[in-house]
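Q: Can someone sanity-check these two? First one:
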Amino acid sequence: MYGIFIIFLFYTLGTVISMVMGELIPGSVIGMVLLFVSLLAGWVKPEKVRQVAIFLTGNMALFFVPVGVGLMATTHYFSGALPAIVTTIVISTLLVMVSVGWIQQLLERKK
């Protein structure tokens, strides 16, 4: 229960900070960064949230089902923008793959 509390606490803190900032950055992202910093600083012990984190990441696919259904139900709204959407998806995927590969190579050189 403590792990769930900690994760939801940081999510709530991130959401509040996001609202105060005018929702420029999503609250979930801010909360995740705050949790990461807290784990690095030692304020939150990894073993306290590990079990909940493993459960959530193991069932992550379930979180995408509502989004997928929503997209299928509203395709008529953005069907005219399909080329722009596909282009954005391809470019962002390539950028993520290149940046992750580059960071991985940097980390392997440090070993």
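And here is the second, same format, sequence then tokens:
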Amino acid sequence: MHNLAVETIKATIKYLIVALFIIIVIVGAIYLLFGQEVNETFSIISKVAIDIENKKVEQTQMSEDNTLENYPEYGTQYATIKIPRINADLPVYFGDTLEVLKNGVGHSSGSYFPGEGGSIIYMGHNSKNMFRRFSELQLGDEMTVTTSYGEYTYKIYDMQLIKETDVDKLPIQKEKEILMVYTCYPFNNIGYATQRYVVYAELEE
């Protein structure tokens, strides 16, 4: 009985090896015969995906009344922000959830977009790769936001340390384009912080 079981197992293994070999031969033959067509098909699929993504970017543009014709989807990157003083060059995502902030700078969904002429609120972690060096910023420093529909440069005119509950320190208004960027304070804080360091900058060009 034992010998019969052993022989059965051996036969099964042989059949599996033969089947695997046949599959490899068939796949190899298909690739040799139709490899070019397969590669072209995947190239076309990739090109279509890229074209669709480009169209999404092209659709986000400014209208004559300074409003976006098509707003970016929540959680997607639509811009980058550069702050030369602290060597920051970071992606900007539409949204302000913790998941969004893991990827880069968040844009408060309750504020305006660059170029719309109102308050813009950005936020980011005080980590080493984000806004840890905010204390080095000075009045007059520039921050440039580059979007798919234009580039906007803002000059810092004020910096304040506020409480997280001081919502009046981040006013939403439409009279003047102001970029407000904040991070948690102290800058080397680990864990939850109740204070925020806010940088205020007005549109320069």
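A (reply): Looked at the second one. Helices lie at 2-59, 98-101. Residues 69 and 151 are 17 Å apart (CA to CA).
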